[in-house]
Design goal:
With about 160 residues, this protein is mostly helical. It contains 3 helices and no strands. The termini are far apart.
């Protein structure tokens, strides 16, 4: 029986060694899977950080663009104010210069009203001069609207 006990002990040892090896292999596979999960989380974190950095860079570029636009607007406003500043000259020259835009706007709107009355009030569209009057009316209405929009739009407060 010694031989049988020796062989059975060896067989049990071989089985236990195989089970230990399989268990060791299983634990190794679990460790590998956990390492892959950790690496996937690291990659996802790095990707999220890279996207955040890209978003921050694009926001910085947008802010720089807005700042440049605002600085340009203020530079244009400063140049406009400087251009409108009366120069050292006679008072009447400064008065005429400062009244040019409002008087021009008023005159254009008076001309517009007069042309409106002529075109629509007296039926000028039926005589031979209708194309000439219509062309003049279009020109005056364009000029009056442009002057009004420029006069008030140029001085409108900026948000």
């Amino acid at each position: 029986m010694d031989v049988l006990n020796s062989l059975s002990g060896g067989a049990v040892g071989a089985v236990m060694g195989a089970l230990g090896s399989a268990a060791n292999r299983g634990v190794g596979l679990l460790e590998l899977r956990e390492k892959r999960k950790d690496r996937a989380q690291d990659i996802a974190h790095e990707r999220a950080m890279a996207e955040l950095a890209q978003t921050l860079k694009s926001q910085e570029a947008l802010q720089a663009q807005r700042l440049a636009h605002i600085q340009g607007s203020y530079a244009g406003l400063a140049a406009s104010i400087e251009a409108d500043r009366p120069e050292a000259s006679y008072r009447w020259v400064a008065a005429v210069r400062s009244l040019t835009r409002p008087v021009l706007t008023l005159v254009l709107w008076i001309l517009f009203a007069g042309m409106f009355v002529i075109v629509f009030g007296f039926g000028a569209a039926h005589d031979q001069s209708a194309p000439l009057i219509a062309s003049g009316f279009e020109t005056i209405s364009f000029s009056a609207a442009t002057a009004l929009a420029w006069w008030f739009g140029d001085r409108a407060p900026r948000p």
